[in-house]
Design goal:
Blueprint: E1 7-10, H1 16-27, E2 31-36, H2 39-52, E3 57-61, H3 67-81, E4 86-89, H4 104-135, E5 144-147, H5 152-155, H6 161-167
Parallel strand pairs: 1-2, 1-4, 2-3, 4-5
Helix pairs in contact: 3-4, 4-6
Length: about 170
């Protein structure tokens, strides 16, 4: 129970890496806020945590690309668990196309979720971490932020210039 009494937000936790991360955090004792835009995927992850791992979890359907919705995630965490200790920025999407065929909307959607969504969630949780630092300046940590990226941000991926740019 390495993370007992810690509260973690995991964005994009309905499927894939986000889901696996949320489950592992719960196994380690964290109370988990499962975020995604897909309500069914959220429910499945929360159910997996609460039923199969006896963890505590809530789900929050929100689009991290919109600051007010990122704030909604943080407010839900505070309402359910009192605080936030860990933020895992995992949400990401792909809208693949070769650059000569890529529409501006495909570019914008990927950068909005993967890049702006990361910014929005950090901005939303920052006041908690800053206040914690002021009230306990000797603490080793005021909070943890993990931004999930991809090797596509280092080497690029054919047909995914938007994704590679966002992850870089």
């Amino acid at each position: 129970m390495l993370l007992k009494d810690q509260v973690a937000i995991v964005t994009g936790a309905g499927t894939g890496i986000g889901r696996a991360t949320a489950i592992e955090l719960a196994k380690q004792g964290a109370k988990v806020v499962v975020n995604d835009i897909n309500e069914e995927a959220i429910a499945a992850t929360v159910q997996e945590i609460t039923n199969n791992h006896e963890g505590e979890a809530i789900g929050v359907q929100a689009n991290v690309a919109v600051f007010e919705e990122a704030e909604k995630i943080v407010e839900a965490a505070k309402g359910a668990f009192g605080t936030v200790n860990i933020l895992i920025n995992n949400a990401g999407i792909i809208r693949p196309a070769m650059i000569n065929k890529m529409e501006e909307d495909q570019w914008d959607q990927v950068l909005d979720v993967s890049l702006k969504g990361t910014f929005n969630c950090i901005k939303a949780v920052a006041p908690i971490f800053i206040e914690r630092g002021k009230s306990n300046p000797e603490a080793l940590s005021n909070g943890k932020i993990v931004n999930v990226t991809s090797t596509a941000g280092l080497a690029g991926t054919i047909g995914q210039v938007n994704y590679s740019a966002a992850k870089a």
